[in-house]
Specification:
Layout: E1 3-6, H1 7-11, E2 14-16, E3 22-26, E4 29-33, H2 38-45, E5 48-51
Parallel strand pairs: 1-5
Antiparallel strand pairs: 2-3, 3-4
Length: 52
């Protein structure tokens, strides 16, 4: 199964955590990130091909 996502769509799932970082949820897993660029790395670890 090929999983694709646009970078913009992934960023929509990164919500401010109130402490200057973000909470990002992908496939039911919750990630605390400090930079939205981490979203790409996490998605790739889940097997996604990112479309820019």
């Amino acid at each position: 199964m090929v999983k694709t996502a646009t970078f913009e769509a992934l960023l929509e799932d990164a919500r401010p955590d109130g402490d200057g970082g973000f909470i990002f949820v992908l496939e039911g897993k919750i990630y605390n990130i400090t930079d939205k660029d981490e979203v790409r790395k996490i998605a790739e670890q889940h097997g996604y091909i990112i479309i820019y």
